[in-house]
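User: I'm putting together notes for a lab meeting next week and I want to include a structural view of one of the chains we've been expressing. I don't have a solved structure, so I'd like a prediction I can at least talk through. The sequence is below, exactly as it appears in our construct file.
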Amino acid sequence: MVNFEELKNNIKGVAVVMTTPFRKDYSLDEEGLKRLTRFLLDSGLQKGSGVLIPAGSTGECPMLTDEERKRIFEITKKETGDHIPVIGGCNHTDTRTVIKLVHYAEEAGLDGVMISPPYYWKPNEEVILTHYKAIAKETRMGIIVYNNWFSTQLDISVETMISLVNEIPNIIALKENTPYIGKFAKMVEAVGDKIAVLNGTGEAHEPYAALMGTQGFISGPACFIPKTCLALYQAEVQKDWVKAKDILRKIKPILEFISSGKHDASYLINIKTALNILGLPGGVPRLPLLPADEEKKEECRKALGKCGLLDK
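Assistant: Thanks for the context. Below is the predicted structure for the 312-residue chain, given as structure tokens.
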């Protein structure tokens, strides 16, 4: 029997949305994925202070085959063991495919799954409830709802989230990506005592999200600065808001670089660029995304330099 309460309590800290390393021929770099996973663990992330999320949006899930996701789940779990919760990204617009991916996560021994509402067509509450109920009937795994408004075209309402939590026991957490801080506060107040709420916008909404009562934050930059992100979380746990803001101030140049670009997927290209410059396994993005040009690489080097990261 799955202990949903225990899993909910372990969804906290720095939730790293892992990139997926690809070789120049766009094939999955399995050794690179192993190295990245080990790097994150060796940097101090563990149960109680972190979560790993492979094959999510930052992991270029729309460009992955189902079998590749299965392999990514297997590799990540094998490298981590029980050291840290691993939550598999199982986003798809077809409910049947999501169920298949959830079963892959079960077979790999993952701790839970993260699932967005169906995308392509903008869903309503009925579609969202139907999607998650059908998935929950086919698994005993804990589910993190991913409010992926930028692909679903819908910011999940507080009322819909309350219905999901009340009707589906499998739901143990929410990755709240809403861009509206006022709505974020209402969501935490409405469901934060029943499920774990993670700040899906990451460092941009810290430490304010922590003040509202979240259990942690989603982070893409943690792929290459996990110790810094962990220090931020620990400062928040200690309610040392001055220290937390000081940590964020010191990494502001690289955070601004990561969020810059000409399209919505620029951030994951920028993360891979930083990984590659720091000698970590980033690799190339998959088409139709293109790798950073020399001008963008130089911009990344300058940002890393301003943060003192090149020296390390």
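A couple of points you could mention at the meeting. The chain has a mean pLDDT of 96. The chain has one domain: 4-238.

User: Perfect, that's what I needed.
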